Every structure is written in structure tokens, then in C-alpha cells.
Amino acid sequence: MKSATGAHIGTGTWLLQRATAVLLAMVMPGLAIYFLLALPLDFAEWQALFALPGMRVMTLFIGAVLALHAWVGIRDIFMDYVHSTGLKLVLYLAVIVTLAGSVIWLAAVLWEVA
Predict the structure, then answer these.
(1) How far apart are CA 105 and CA 103, in angstroms?
(2) Which residues of 24-61 are buried (b: 16+ CB within 10 A; e: fewer)?
(3) Does residue 4 sit within a domain?
(4) Looking at the domain assignment, is residue 6 inside a domain?
């Protein structure tokens, strides 16, 4: 009997997980080096650094990519190890609210700086 979901249903999430991992692997070392070289020492220097629109947009983008990467990984863990549908839905909701709230909070903080 044929499966109703198809044989390649997880390919999209697998590609999304790998794509976000590659983006993070490329951006994070560069960002760490940039921060080490800039080495803002006080609040005024940090504020000046994040007053640049490009830095704000890039930081928000990285935060969103990190949240998406975390969501795919945690969702897969819940799918594999949490067997109760009700508990799984509660955990999904808790993670989604936490990750989305974190990205929204990051955006609010970034655009409050200037």
C-alpha cells in the first residue's frame, strides 16, 4: 500500500536545516572576528556599532536564521522522542512562542538603540 505522505516529505526540512547551518557557519566566525577587532568597550561604542542600519539588519537576519535552525532541530527531536500528540503540540507551541518572541525582542532592541 502506498504512503499518503510521500517518500520525500522530510527533504525540505533537511535542506532547510543544512542551509541554515551553512549560513551560520559562514557568518558567525566573521562576526566574531569583527567584534574582536572592533572591541567596543563601553555602551556608547556598542550603541554606535549598532546604529549602523546594515549591522542591525544583519544581526536580525542572523537571529532569525538561528531561530529557524533551532526550530527545525527541536521539532525533529520532538517528532522522534515525544509520542503523546497533546504533549507534542504543547511543546511545539512553547518553542514557537519562545523563538518568535526572541526574534521580535531582538528586533525591538536593535531598533531601540538609535
Answers:
(1) 5
(2) eeeeeeeeeeeeeeeeeeeeeeeeebbeeeebbeebbe
(3) no
(4) no
For residue 40, how many C-alpha atoms fall within 13 Å in the half-sphere facing its CB? Answer: 12
What is the chain's pLDDT, residue by residue, as a tens digit (114 residues)? Answer: 454 555 666 888 889 999 999 999 999 898 888 878 877 778 888 888 888 899 899 999 999 999 999 999 999 999 999 999 999 999 999 999 999 999 999 999 999 854
CATH number at residue 33: 1.20.1300.10
Domains of the chain: total: 1
**Does 98 fall in a domain?**
yes
